[in-house]
Design brief:
Layout (H helix, E strand, L loop, with lengths): L1 E5 L2 E5 L5 E2 L12 E4 L8 E6 L6 E5 L14 H7 L8 E7 L7 E2 L5 E4 L4 E4 L11 E2 L3 H5 L1
Antiparallel strand pairs: 1-2, 3-4, 4-5, 5-6, 6-7, 7-8, 7-9, 8-11, 9-10
Length: about 140
């Protein structure tokens, strides 16, 4: 086990269980290793904390719980970078932003592909999508539509 100091205080983690972003995240290409923070509250949001920079953490969520028609299928090149074949599970998550006005948005234009089998993740940019990097979190009524 190793420990790091972070915005959450001291975190103990197993290096074998870190989440690896081989290409980093957009705007944070040098940050490759993250720890998934345990959820203290029930809900769809969770944090990943950078091991390389203790000041950097991101809120993530599964966008399909909010946008039922949202679907991203990794191509062969992306599967290769994730270290998986065509039959392996690949989950989709996205970065959540909570600005000062508390109007929460999801970055659906650049989702994160996550391969549980290899513990690798890759942020991809979707071209020609109707979703934006600041897609508003839908209201309960909108989510039902």
């Amino acid at each position: 086990m190793k420990t790091i100091q972070s915005r959450f205080g001291e975190i103990e983690y197993d290096p074998e269980n870190t989440l690896l972003f081989p290409e980093g995240l957009i705007g944070f290409e040098d940050l490759r290793d993250f720890v998934v923070m345990p959820n203290e509250k029930e809900g769809p949001l969770f944090w990943i904390q950078s091991i390389d920079d203790p000041q950097v953490a991101f809120i993530l969520t599964d966008p399909t719980g909010f946008y039922f028609d949202y679907k991203v299928v990794p191509d062969g090149r992306e599967r290769q970078k994730l270290g998986i074949d065509g039959n392996a599970e690949c989950l989709i998550v996205c970065v959540v932003s909570v600005p000062a006005d508390h109007k929460i948005t999801l970055n659906l234009a650049a989702p994160i592909l996550f391969a549980p089998e290899t513990n690798r993740a890759l942020q991809v940019i979707l071209e020609g999508t109707k979703f934006s990097p600041q897609t508003p979190l839908p209201t309960v009524e909108e989510a039902k539509e």
